[in-house]
């Protein structure tokens, strides 16, 4: 895209997810007084910490918004300085250059995205892209057709984890890793998985979830020989993004602490993709991550059976 300012639509808002407020503010700026009334208390806290000169992503603005509950759209638009509210998400077609689907229920994403994919509009989809095999096949087919689709967790861009994306040589050969997360496996397991994925890279073999829907304890095997334990417990808010890496020479414990940095970097990667046409990481990584999510659900539903990624078909 060559234009000076990319026009974005922010679409969708579901329970427990305030991204339309914070993500829009990172493009547009915000009304501090109205943002303080945001029902997601953590959002104004981390936005208000950020200096005005480093708050916004350059070269793009959120110009249109639609939310599932129309009352939410009005509140977000006022707080995050969005000029246009639409009555149907499809109304933004022809008015914007790209769309952001800001919802985190994977089973809804195919239908939320379909009108824009068919219209040829580039799209960013909040994590997880999907939570079932059938929908993964749909997105894979769209990407194979050349559709512009990007999806990620903000945890891929965790500031404190980035040094270990670059190298873990000081730890020796990794033998064990763990990462913790709150809320549900279906919606937040991807945060934990994508937090650790850039460190180990592709090559996950199998998943065994011996927990329950509220207390997921998941063992992942990786081709490198490393074992990974991911714990996603519904009310474990005191352990959001705690990473441990253990190797043959040393170990490290790291905590995710800067949500603003993660979100802004994540959104900036989408704008860079729109301008360059170059994905920040291969879609094959998203496929593998979605297979991990799907395998974790399947294993839990099958009483902790070890589910191999090879069982899940993306095409």
TrEMBL record:
InterPro entries found in the cross-reference section: Gfo/Idh/MocA-like_OxRdtase_N, NAD(P)-bd_dom_sf
Domain Gfo/Idh/MocA-like oxidoreductase N-terminal: residue ranges: 58-146
Protein name in the entry: Dehydrogenase
Matching SUPFAM superfamilies: NAD(P)-binding Rossmann-fold domains (SSF51735)
């Amino acid at each position: 895209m060559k234009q000076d300012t990319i026009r974005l639509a922010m679409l969708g808002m579901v329970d427990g997810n305030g991204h339309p407020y914070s993500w829009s503010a990172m493009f547009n700026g915000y009304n501090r007084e109205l943002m303080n009334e945001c029902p997601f208390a953590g959002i104004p806290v981390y936005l208000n910490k950020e200096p005005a000169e480093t708050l916004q992503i350059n070269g793009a603005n959120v110009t249109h918004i639609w939310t599932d509950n129309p009352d939410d759209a009005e509140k977000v638009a006022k707080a995050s300085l969005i000029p246009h509210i639409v009555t149907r998400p499809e109304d933004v077609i022809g008015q914007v250059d790209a769309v952001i689907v800001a919802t985190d229920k994977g089973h809804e994403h195919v239908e939320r995205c379909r009108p824009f994919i068919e219209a040829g509009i580039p799209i960013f989809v909040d994590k997880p892209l999907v939570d079932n095999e059938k929908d993964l096949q749909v997105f894979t087919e769209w990407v194979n057709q050349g559709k512009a689709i990007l999806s990620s967790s903000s945890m891929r861009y965790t500031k404190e984890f980035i040094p270990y994306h670059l190298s873990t040589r000081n730890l020796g050969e990794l033998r064990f890793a763990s990462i913790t997360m709150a809320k549900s496996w279906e919606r937040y397991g991807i945060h934990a998985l994508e937090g650790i994925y850039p460190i180990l890279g592709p090559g996950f073999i199998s998943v065994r979830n011996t927990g329950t829907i509220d207390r997921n304890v998941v063992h992942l095997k990786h081709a490198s020989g490393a074992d990974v334990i991911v714990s996603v417990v519904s009310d474990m808010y005191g352990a959001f993004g705690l990473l441990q890496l253990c190797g043959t020479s040393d170990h490290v414990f790291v905590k995710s602490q800067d949500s603003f940095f993660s979100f802004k970097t994540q959104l900036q990667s989408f704008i860079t993709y729109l301008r360059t046409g170059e994905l920040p990481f291969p879609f094959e990584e998203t496929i593998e991550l979605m297979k991990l999510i799907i395998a974790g659900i399947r294993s839990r539903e099958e009483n902790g059976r070890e589910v191999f990624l090879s069982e899940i078909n993306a095409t």
